[in-house]
């Protein structure tokens, strides 16, 4: 059970990532064009309308990103709208948007002091480095992993290893018509 399940007022940190079948989140050159659908169709899968997607995204209070994901998002086209975004970095980075804040320092303080009091539904959306650190610190309540129907062969690994063994509980599975599958888990901590 998620640490925060059953208490709607507490914060929930969701790790959301899209992985290839062989566990990569980006090609070696950082490109992510493999995230686009190829036109293959899984007949039993569902589709989500733009309206449904937009109303779901409105439930997210804040995104947390590592600096490399931030820089890549600026290059590719900003996907986070006007929702508040916290970028973790030790560097001075340009801020192109009012909704972006930068944070350097302890990640527990980030959650407990900076974000926890302000936001309830917090999405950690990459990259691999920052997500792994959050998992190691036990600060993820839910994992939403989307598996894309592609083998990349090489690239940036979703998890690079070295984490302690930990059980998670499967909460939901959604298969989409474009062949992507979303697996949702909650932390099975005592
Ligand atoms: N497939 C997907 O769903 C998905 C999602 C997100 C990203 N991506 C891809 O993943 C790649 C980026 O991932 P990545 O793992 O290389 O990098 P990342 O996690 O996005 O960013 C790493 C950077 O975050 C900062 N950082 C991380 N932990 C920190 C800590 N504890 N304290 C202070 N700063 C910390 C550091 O920034 P400084 O070096 O600035 O100090 C570090 O270099 C991109 O290619 C992106 O497109 C894919």
Description:
The chain has 190 residues and is an alpha/beta fold. It has a single domain (12-23, 47-187), classed as Dihydrofolate Reductase, subunit A, CATH 3.40.430.10. The chain has 4 helices and 10 strands, in the order ββαβαββαβαββββ. The strands form 2 sheets. The chain has an 8-stranded mixed beta sheet. The structure holds NADP nicotinamide-adenine-dinucleotide phosphate. NADP nicotinamide-adenine-dinucleotide phosphate binds next to strand 1, strand 2, helix 2 and helix 4.
CATH topology: Dihydrofolate Reductase, subunit A
The secondary-structure class comes to alpha/beta
Main beta sheet strand tally, sense and closure: 8 strands, mixed
Task: Estimate the mean pLDDT confidence.
Answer: 92
Instruction: List segments where confidence is low: pLDDT < 50 over at least 5 consecutive residues.
Output: 1-8
Identify every distinct bound molecule in the structure, by name, code or SMILES. NADP nicotinamide-adenine-dinucleotide phosphate
Secondary-structure element sequence? EEHEHEEHEHEEEE
The fourth-level CATH homologous superfamily is Dihydrofolate Reductase, subunit A
What is the helix content?
10-25%
Taken together, the total number of domains comes to: 1
Task: Report the top-level CATH class.
Answer: Alpha Beta
**Which architecture name does CATH use?**
3-Layer(aba) Sandwich
Distance between the termini: 8 Å
Put simply, the count of helices is 4
DSSP strand count: 10
Rg (C-alpha, Å): 17 Å
Strand order of the largest sheet: 5-4-3-6-1-7-10-9
């Amino acid at each position: 059970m998620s640490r925060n399940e059953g208490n709607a007022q507490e914060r929930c940190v969701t790790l959301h990532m899209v992985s290839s079948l062989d566990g990569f989140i980006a090609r070696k050159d950082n490109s992510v064009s493999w995230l686009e659908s190829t036109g293959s169709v899984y007949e039993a899968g569902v589709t989500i309308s733009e309206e449904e997607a937009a109303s779901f995204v409105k439930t997210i209070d804040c995104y947390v990103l590592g600096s490399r994901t931030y820089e890549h998002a600026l290059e590719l086209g900003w996907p986070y709208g006007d929702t508040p975004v916290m970028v973790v970095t030790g560097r001075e980075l340009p801020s192109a948007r009012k909704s972006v804040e930068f944070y350097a320092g302890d990640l527990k303080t980030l959650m407990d002091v900076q974000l926890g009091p302000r936001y309830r539904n917090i999405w950690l959306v990459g990259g691999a480095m920052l997500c792994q650190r959050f998992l190691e610190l036990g600060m993820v309540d839910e994992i939403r992993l989307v598996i894309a129907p592609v083998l990349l062969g090489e690239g940036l690994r979703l998890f690079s290893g070295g984490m302690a063994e930990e059980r998670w509980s499967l909460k939901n599975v959604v298969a989409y018509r474009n062949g992507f599958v979303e697996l949702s888990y909650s932390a099975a901590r005592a």
